[in-house]
Write a structure and sequence with these properties.
single chain, alpha+beta, Muramoyl-pentapeptide Carboxypeptidase, domain 2, 5-stranded mixed sheet, two-stranded antiparallel sheet, 5 helices, globular, binds zinc ion
Length: 143
């Protein structure tokens, strides 16, 4: 099911860890509404600007999946309000700066650990967005 032109429910809920551990990561109606809002307000406008693929490495996480990967207990991924993403064809820092300066968001993190770097971005449709941006966030657990 499409959420916007370039984003589907499938990619916003897909998880290798969920599949490997037989975790049912299907979203509720409320979660779907939040994912759609995140795509409509942040991810699709970003995709339109970049003109190339955005890889969502983690979108919605059910509580069981969130625990399994070591996500924070209050993570916005639990509500379908957040996505972790990379853009292989662009410099990630430039993508971060574009979101920061041009798009709505609740929390925007340029995250890294020993192996990887990625952008975490969240959006709230039901309350005002904090516009908290951190450009060098050492990930000890997943936000
Ligand atoms: Zn995240």
């Amino acid at each position: 099911m499409k959420l916007t032109d370039n984003f589907t429910i499938n990619e916003m809920t897909y998880s290798v860890t969920a599949l490997a551990n037989k975790i049912d990561n299907r979203p509720s109606v409320e979660v779907i509404a939040n994912l759609k809002s995140l795509c409509e307000n942040v991810l699709q406008p970003l995709r339109n600007h970049l003109g190339c693929a955005i890889i969502v490495t983690s979108g919605y996480r059910c509580p069981q999946l969130n625990r399994k990967i070591g996500g924070k207990p209050n993570s916005q991924h639990l509500k379908g309000q957040a996505a972790d993403l990379v853009v292989p064809q662009k410099k990630l820092k430039e993508v971060f700066d574009y979101i920061k300066n041009n798009l709505p968001y609740d929390q925007l993190l340029y995250e890294f650990n020993k192996k990887d770097k990625w952008i975490h971005v969240s959006y709230c449709s039901n309350k005002s967005n904090r516009r908290q941006a951190i450009d060098n966030y050492a990930a000890e657990s997943f936000s």
